[in-house]
Amino acid sequence: MGAKVSVIGLGKLGCPLAACFAANGGEVVGVDMEQRAVDAVNQGKAPTVETGLQDLMNQLTGNLRATQDFVDAVTSTDVTFVVVPTPSGEDGTFINDYVVAACRSIGQGLKEKSSYHVVTIVSTVMPGSTGGVIRQALEEASGKTCGVDFGLCYSPAFVALGSVIRNFLRPDYLLIGESDPKAGETLEQFYQCMCDDEPRAERMSFVNAELTKLATNAFVSTKITFGNMMAQLCEHLPGADVDIVTSALGMDSRIGVKYLKGGIGYGGPCLDRDNVALVAMAGNIGSEAILAEATDRANRLEVSRLVDIIKSKRDTSNTVGVLGLSYKPDTNVIDASQGVLLAQALGKEGYPVVAYDPAAMETTKQMVGESVTFAASAERCIEESAVIVISTPWNCFAEIRPGLFTGKTADGAPKVLIDCWRMLNAETFAAITDYVPLGIGPEHQ
Ligand SMILES: NC(=O)c1ccc[n+]([C@@H]2O[C@H](COP(=O)([O-])OP(=O)(O)OC[C@H]3O[C@@H](n4cnc5c(N)ncnc54)[C@H](O)[C@@H]3O)[C@@H](O)[C@H]2O)c1
Question: Which CATH number fits domain 4-204: 3.40.50.720, 1.10.1240.10, 1.10.260.40, 3.40.50.300?
Fold first, then answer.
């Protein structure tokens, strides 16, 4: 008999998690407040866009179903994962309302159940939440005692959109905050049924796990920002090349190569907000997170840095083309995306902006309205622009043909090409454009 699990919230993380358990022989029940998501899952359709999700769901043999009945979901399974939104409030801390509402409904199911059950919070929450309002909601609704009658764990996901399934199946390690050893042990065993390579579990108290989750993303944000700082320094140092420096830097086993490529700022649904939440939490407990604050400040300056480069090259009578709106390649998500922020900042400065992205144009249109126009292709975007910025390193932008840049602008000058990720052949493009690769210093005199 496979693992019997329920997953509350069938969104960008919850549905892949449910499908991963089901693909590994689990009996899985999903719950979502949106009928659309429930219907999609029951029809074998992915309710959200994620690499490999539909393929995984196509392989299932009727062992993933969805409902809006929490009591059914809890009483027919042994572990319930809560993967609902925790939006950021105005002060940067996360709001628990959806998690607490879900836990009240789960508590109704716990009330009906005589056998042992573990509730696992996957949603990112602020330190103090799991042992506080979340435990309280479960105990009040069920009339039972956490750590005695049922177990509670906090086990956030270290996943990136576009690789959610791979990250769930092959995590670096499992982070588990537990109400008691039985709860943590049970959850670890359930994960081992799903994961490919028996990951090591780090088990600890709720508050340490909650802090570890925030610390992880704050650390990665800082590492990215360090690479970006090196890129900026290189731009002012004759003969310097950030890729050569960071490749060597990453060879040091204390540092490592990942997330060091100097370019423009980070975005996405996690790094930015987790780092900001850490700063907010520090303030709320009478402490300071100076490094995280500096990272956030440096990251916010990245867009102005690009705007300044553009202003130094062309005035506002020139159209700027932004290639890339998603916060990273292979997703349509634009949360805190540098490309979108750049397009908005240029619009405010008075530049006409035309944008293209292979996947994120619809989401961007809904957000920016009339202030940006959209090109049907990368080629059209380049044709219409005097300045072109490659803001997201989609693979297709590396294939851009040099011939597209040979047309001169109205004043007879070559087009400016700002290559934030150094995707193009510098020699080829420097011969036909005013080529500006970030992170590369001026030629030696
Ligand atoms: N998206 C990411 O890259 C990512 C990465 C790591 C962690 N997280 C965290 O995971 C959590 C979920 O994020 P997501 O991106 O999957 O969100 P999402 O918005 O894509 O999905 C959440 C789903 O929960 C459903 N829902 C909300 N309240 C509910 C309730 N009471 N009962 C049942 N269903 C309910 C919604 O209808 C929605 O389908 C958040 O805390 C987020 O911070 C997200």
Answer: 3.40.50.720
